Amino acid sequence: MRFRPLCLCASIFAAASEHCVVPSAPTIANSVTPLLRTQAPGFYRMALGDFVVTALSDGTVSLALDKVLNNITQAQIQTLITRNFQSLPVEVSINAFLIDTGTRVVLVDTGAGELFASRGGGGQLLANLRAAGYQPGQINDVLLTHVHADHSGGLVIDEKIVFPNAVVHVHQAELDHWSDAQAEANAPAYQQHSFPQGRASMAPYHISGKVAPFNGATELFPGIRTIEAPGHTPGHTFYSVESKGQRLVIWGDTVHFAPIQLADPSVTIQFDSDAERARTQRESALADAARQRYMVAAAHISFPGLGHIRHMGTEYEWVPVSYSAA
Ligand SMILES: [Zn+2]
């Protein structure tokens, strides 16, 4: 397999192609064998009380942050990226998380599926699910943080259900928003394609009666409950997972790029439906995680996207989970 150029914004925002910067394919000039140019399978497992949590990589996408961030200057973007030894465009992880409770297998988000394929990004979730020892038919429930392409696109392949035995749980406000013709008409051009994409990913599950919308904060299953976090999208939802006193909170798109948005949580992104609400929601989520010291699972923090938040001076910092081989 060779590396392919990736692009997030052309997939999320089809109309914003000027935001896409397709990087040149990386090369390993002195590699002994091209077979060694790939990574190990993208899953990482950890115990959470009696539950087993597995982070699943859907791959990465390239993101031209200098084109999509707001409330920040170009000089500030460059400073924070350089401080983190990166350069534009940045390579952003797409992570999903599987919770095996012993009686249910629950998948939170599904990656981009085929929706980023034309740009070579995402689409790795099923291979990594199988590598981690699970089959799509074993998933009892899919929990969506929201319906953007890189979170719900993996629900279908060729318009057909990928998880045949799963019920899809999603906030009612998400379903309402992405089927709202007026909201679609009023959305900026670079967000409009998300409406038909979202409807298409959900459609076969609707037809099969496999969509279970929820409202408010609710316990879906013992140890797994929803936390409303609107802003990035109207029905954006966190999932709190708790067993034997150990707690994990699974974020959706609270942080798109940690080196910038943890240094300055007021930085918003064009993907937000309501940027001001997304900003306040991010600020409260970071403060809560730092104060309560629970583990966080983040969709777009570098794989496996599991770690803790701490408050250092005027900034927040991400502390990745300490690697365990067991
Ligand atoms: Zn996302």
Q: What's the number of helices?
A: 11
pLDDT averaged residue by residue: 91
> Can you name the CATH architecture?
4-Layer Sandwich
Percent range for β-strand residues: 25-35%
Radius of gyration over alpha carbons?
19 Å
CATH superfamily: Ribonuclease Z/Hydroxyacylglutathione hydrolase-like
- Let me know the largest β-sheet: 7 strands, mixed
Bound molecules: zinc ion
Supply the CATH class: Alpha Beta
Q: Return the CATH topology.
A: Metallo-beta-lactamase, Chain A
Structural class: alpha+beta
Distance between the termini: 29 Å
Quick take:
The chain has 326 residues and is of the alpha+beta class. It has eleven helices and 18 strands.
Overview of the molecule:
It contains eleven helices and 18 strands. It has 326 residues and is α+β, with helices and mostly antiparallel strands. The protein has one domain: Ribonuclease Z/Hydroxyacylglutathione hydrolase-like (Metallo-beta-lactamase, Chain A, 4-Layer Sandwich). The strands form four sheets. A seven-stranded mixed sheet has the order 1-2-4-5-6-9-10. Strands 11-12-13-14-16-17-18 form a seven-stranded mixed sheet. The relative contact order is 0.15. Zinc ion binds next to helix 5.
